[in-house]
Amino acid sequence: MRIVYIDDERHFINQLSELAEKYKQCRGVQLELQSYEKAELLLYDLAEEIFYDLYLLDINLGNGMSGLELAGQIREKDEKAQIVFLTFYSEFALEGYEYHPLHYILKSEIHKLEEILDQLIQKKKEDDVRFRLLRKQSGIEKIRYQTICYIYKRAKNCVYVCEDGSTYFERKSLAQLSEELCLPEMLPVGKSYIVNMNRIKKLDRQDIYFDCPIEPIHIPYQQVEFVKKSLFQFLKGEQS
Question: Model-level pTM?
């Protein structure tokens, strides 16, 4: 796994390097950490099509470009980039959602990076095998969970909406389906939706936008704070 870290604080770069080396030895995995103090150096890499498996970005970079701005440029070059925001300031957390980060952690909780690396490695393994059998008019098809953006109730069916706009249905209640899925990324939103938090690009008032060209969904006002809190906890890796 190739990791790049952008931060203008040399002592924190050293701290992260020590953590990465310890993780590599304890887990017995191949891990390569590249660090830069300036965002422009990473942009040079991207221009040369040098990509990384994980991007660790300090939100509050002190050299003219914020970590959020850098994340936007990374997304333009590497759509599937796994991004983790690091900062001392928790109020920046929700601002980063439009860049679809993998996680968000405080620098005071840098030890959580080990958990995040574990989750990322495990997720790569699970993505190869996790799927659900769903009905289409033409028969039955395997659908990977990672392609599902949200699920909603229509009559007696649950309707799955996927990243390419395709839809599938399953004849059961939304509550029953939520219990069956039992996946941390699948968030029940009232009695209307089950939303894949991995696919959320941003939450704008009562509208949830996804990281693919499908229409946003409108959620009840009473559910907005619940969704915000759930997204924040999910990014921090605190999902139960």
Answer: 0.54
